[in-house]
Write a structure and sequence with these properties.
Blueprint (H helix, E strand, L loop, with lengths): L7 H10 L14 H34 L17 H29 L9 E8 L2 E6 L4 E4 L1 E5 L4 E7 L4 E5 L3 E6 L5 E5 L5 E7 L11 E7 L1 H13 L4 H4 L2 H13 L27 E2 L3 E2 L5 H8 L23 H12 L6
Parallel strand pairs: 1-5, 4-10
Antiparallel strand pairs: 1-2, 2-3, 5-8, 6-7, 6-9, 9-10, 11-12
The protein binds heme C and copper (II) ion (CU).
Length: 344
């Protein structure tokens, strides 16, 4: 007890951590889905608070009024049934449940309306141990880790999983829903403002489950169209930009990486690992590792991703066809990865 105050600074840190605009809170809902869900949470909370206040008020009143007094005979007045009371305490809960039920049922239909329309856009969300793949069937685009969406557009998500059960959660945009192998679970989101909405896997799916983060990046519809078109087209060809080091890097990439990583325009296999078409625009590596200016984390990831994200499916570079990389080769490969951009 004496040392409990030492925990105080941590409490403050935790409070402060909640302050930055991270878009990671269901209590700061954005868009129609999260706002509806939050209003239902609030409604049930208010009803519960009302019940607790009334029950406790009666409880305290009874405690005081009927407490043991000195001149008491210890035998309160005996009553047998009271119709009025019975009616009251049956009716009040029924009314409260109705107040709770009617908006819940109505909103459930709105939230479950995942039928694609003229205005909506569909994204298939494939969850893998331990990364996310976003497929845009209307655009023929496959993207890894970052899900770009246009603002103020209904996005119908078709959740799927390729190995075990995962769960898709972008707290500021919508409640969580499971990605189950062999089953397509639909849901929808809509982002009112441009910005980054943080997402997490919320189903224990293996050793690196806790690092299975992703982003929803909402951009204005015009930017989205540019993005989608360029994601099909692929990034600028490095041989045309005269970036000699990157050209060298691309050779290593084609020898060792393309078997699992797709780059539009280059080919490759998007099933083995995240598509890297726009990797140069990521701010983190593998969902969580900050991409620092000196590329320390990126180099560490390529050299040996195992310890950084336990159980992930990417081999160490030394075990790939091109073999281990010396510093220059690593620099070339990273220079190439940095050219993989489709916006700007
Ligand atoms: C056997 C398949 C495989 C090969 C070969 C492979 N990777 Fe990967 N890579 C993966 C998988 C799977 C992931 C996702 C890991 C995770 O986050 O769980 C990944 C993730 C990455 C990421 C992070 C992507 C992101 O969106 O943040 C980078 C960068 C990367 N790999 C680079 C490379 C490079 C460079 C090579 C070649 C030297 C390579 N990979 C070879 C499977 C592979
Ligand atoms: Cu997961």
């Amino acid at each position: 007890m004496k040392y409990l105050w030492r925990l105080l600074p941590f409490t403050f840190i935790m409070l402060l951590a909640g302050c930055g605009k991270q878009n990671l809170s269901a209590l700061d809902p954005q868009g129609p889905v999260a706002e509806t869900q939050f209003s239902l949470i609030r409604l049930s909370l208010y009803i519960m608070i009302f019940v607790i206040v009334v029950v406790f008020a009666i409880y305290v009143f009874v405690l005081i009024k009927f407490r043991d007094k000195e001149d008491d005979t210890h035998m309160p007045k005996q009553v047998h049934g009271n119709k009025a009371l019975e009616v009251i305490w049956t009716t009040i809960p029924i009314v409260l449940l109705l107040i709770l039920a009617v908006p819940n049922v109505m909103e459930t239909f709105t939230l479950a309306d995942t039928e694609p329309t003229e205005e909506s856009m569909t994204v298939r969300v494939h969850a893998h141990q331990f990364w996310w793949e976003f497929e845009y069937p209307d655009y023929d685009v496959v993207a890894g880790q970052d899900m770009y969406i246009p603002t103020n557009t209904k996005i119908v998500l078709e959740l799927e999983a390729s190995d075990v059960i995962h769960s898709f959660w972008v707290p500021a945009l919508a409640g969580k829903q499971d990605n189950v192998p062999g089953i397509m679970n639909p849901m929808w989101i809509e982002a009112p403002n441009e910005g980054v909405y943080m997402g997490k896997c919320t189903e224990l799916c293996g050793p690196a489950h806790w690092l299975m983060d992703f982003k929803v990046i909402a951009v204005d519809p015009d930017t989205f169209e540019t993005w989608a078109a360029n994601m099909v087209e692929g990034p600028e060809d490095v041989t045309e930009t005269g970036n000699e080091i990157a050209v060298e890097g691309r050779e290593i990439f084609e020898a060792s990486c393309i078997a699992c990583h797709a780059v539009a325009g280059e080919g490759g296999n998007p099933q083995g690992g995240p598509a890297l078409t726009n990797f140069g625009e990521r701010t983190v590596i593998a969902g969580y590792l900050p991409w620092d200016d000196d590329d320390v984390n990126l180099e560490a990831w390529i050299r040996d991703p195992g310890p950084l994200k336990p159980g992930n499916a990417m081999p160490a570079v030394a075990d790939l066809p091109y073999g281990d990389l010396n510093d220059e080769e690593m620099e070339a490969l990273i220079a190439y990865l940095k050219t993989l951009k489709v916006l700007e």
